[in-house]
Design a protein that fits this description.
- With about 160 residues, this protein is an alpha+beta fold.
- It has helices at about 30, 35-45, 85-95, 120-130, 135-145, 150-160, and strands at about 10-15, 20-25, 50-55, 60-65, 70-75, 110.
- Strands 2-1-3-4-5-6 form a six-stranded antiparallel beta sheet, sandwiched between helices.
- The longest helix is centred in the last third of the chain and has 12 residues, at about 135-145.
């Protein structure tokens, strides 16, 4: 996929500050290049949790969480790296080889415990990534519901989709 082609989907920065959740839209470049998403997230100053949620082209989602020691990532479908630059960038950062083109199995790659400290343990996130009948935005809504910022997330999606 060319860097100039627009990528359908959305990118959301999620922040928890003083016990309150906030969701803000990220730039369209975050859907094309992982570096763009990481740069936007690192610019957010907060004493609380900060992470990004990307739903790309109704195909997969990506969770990105900056930390002092680096970056935690979860790519919902490793095979997406065959078709999308942002997914390939995620596998590169994770130091994981992309799957073979013949491999039609879906599996997540990265840190399933990326949101464990916020109330979403790895086994539950594994179940959400395994819901292959759901679109990425629906999976992200499940994550938002489970952690406790569904209202803020849905309000932002309503504004984005208008």
């Amino acid at each position: 996929m060319s860097l100039q082609e627009p990528v359908a989907g959305f990118a959301v920065a999620v922040v928890r500050e003083d016990g309150k959740w906030r969701c803000d839209s990220m730039g369209a470049g975050a859907l094309r290049e992982l570096d763009s998403a990481i740069t936007e997230l690192r610019k957010i100053r907060s004493t609380g949790a900060v992470f990004g949620m990307l739903a790309v082209d109704d195909e997969f989602f990506l969770l990105i969480r900056p930390s002092p020691g680096g970056m935690s990532l979860l790519l919902s479908d490793a095979a997406a790296a065959l078709d999308y630059d942002v997914a390939a960038d995620a596998l590169d950062l994770l130091r994981v080889d992309p799957p073979d083109e013949e491999d039609d199995e879906l599996w997540p790659e990265g840190s399933l415990d990326i949101l464990a400290d916020l109330g979403l343990p790895a086994p539950e996130l594994q179940v959400i990534t395994g819901e292959v009948d759901l679109y990425p935005d629906q999976q992200l809504q499940m994550i938002a519901q489970r952690i406790g910022f569904a209202n803020e997330f849905n309000a932002l999606l309503d504004r984005i989709q208008q």
